Structure formats: C-alpha cells, structure tokens
Amino acid sequence: MGGIVNYSRTWANNVLSYVENDSEAQRILIYRQLAWINALRVQLRQPSSFSIKENRAVEKIFDRHGERNPVCSGLDSFLSPEEDTDLENRKNVATHLIKNQGLHLKHLLKEEKITEFDKQIFHNNLEEMYNLQGRCERIKNTPFPRQYAYFSTLFTWLFVLLLPFGLLNVFENQLLEIKPTNVWWYMILMIFFSVLISWIFTSMEKIGSNSEDPFEGRINDVPMTALCRTIEIDLKDMLNEDNLPDKVQAQDNILY
Fold first, then answer.
1. Which pLDDT belongs to residue 73?
2. Residues 40-90 pLDDT 10s
3. What DSSP element (H or E) covers 184?
4. Which domain does 14 fall in, by range?
5. CA atoms within 13 Å, Cβ hemisphere of 6
6. Any domain includes 130
7. Cystine design at 241: which of 51, 74, 153, 236 (Cβ 3.0–4.6 Å)?
8. Which runs of E-coded beta strand occur in 32-145?
9. pLDDT at residue 171 above 70?
C-alpha cells in the first residue's frame, strides 16, 4: 500500500505539471485516481472462499466497521454519472478505471494538450499502478498451501497437549527438593506456565494464519480506509481545494 500512496502523489504531480490550461481535465484525472484507490480497497476487502473465520465477537466488530459493500459504492463522488454507471457492470472495477485513464490520455493527445513524451510518462505511471494492483491481488487470491496451514495448526496443538507432561518432572524435581510438603504450589506453577507457554505458541500460529490475508478489514489488518483518506487529502490539496476531508479516526480503538 505504501507504493500506491507514493505513485498516487506522483500521478497527481504529473497531471498538474503536464496537463496545462485545462483545470477540468486535471480534476477528472486526479479524481479518477481517487476512485481507483477506493475501488481497489473495497475489492480487496471482499471475502473469498478461503477467508479466515473469526469468532463471533470479532465478526460483530467486523460487521459494524467492515466494508463488504458493492465496489462502486461511494465512487459517484469521484466520477461522472456516466462512468459510474458503466463501472457497475464490470467484474474488476479498478482495472477499468486505469483503462479509462489511458483512454483519457489518448483523447488529450489528440487535442494536443499533452505531447507524446508526456503520454509516455503517464503510461509508465499507469503501468506501475497495474503492477501494484496485481501484487495486492496476488496476496489476496493466493493463500498459503493448505497442507502448511493444516499441519502448522496440528503440530501446535499437539505441542500444547503434550507440554504439561513435559513440565511434570521439571517442577517436581526442583520444588520438592526445596519444600517437599508444598505439592499444591508446584501444581499451581505447572498449570500457570503450561497455559502461558501454550498461549504464546497458539498466538504465533494465529498471527501466521491472519498474515495470509491482510486486507479483510480485521482488527490487525492494513488500515486501507485511513490510507485512502490520506491520499484523498493530499491530492485534493494539490488541486488547491478548500474543503478537505478529515482524517479517518479510530473506531473502538481500531483504525481501519
């Protein structure tokens, strides 16, 4: 997502530098970039067949703050009604937005508002946008091999179940040498450390599973909504607009 932030700013800078004497074309090209980042954000947050199922408490938070709305929802503030309507029937909205940027550049070239050299610079920028989108989609659509996920969970729980038996002799030999009568204290310590060590290993296994898909909108996932709003503020500020949106604030101490 960091690359998307940087290349969005580069795109806006190129538009303002090369598309001269046409403020409306500048606004359309930059606003379409804002539509692209938001369309990509919502696409990446759509659940897949192998999405991780959280417990009900986490799912309630996700339902309250998550974004599984249609991809075109909210894009009407960045696009013309005609373009927004056309995108509603597209399978990959973000891909078509970049395509529309290229077609717009072709139109500007015919009107001699940009040069062929300017157009090449813009297309290099669009190529990088596609590359960044493809990387995100590969992370989203290519899970770890199932055998890796299955056996890592299996071995972790086998370790957790066998751990108390491994701690029996450790605590028994040490504590009984000091206070042979305080067997209950030895039992409490053994239970405590068994639970603590088990929690550490199961937490690490859970973190590994969640890292497979960082875009679902869960508590620890990439805060794409906040990043998109940051880009929107920067690009609108570059257009010298006055009514800039506010930064996204955390909800229930979670930044989405």
1. 65
2. 888 888 776 555 555 565 566 555 555 555 555 677 788 888 888 888 888
3. helix 183-210
4. 2-143+213-238
5. 5
6. yes
7. 236
8. none
9. no
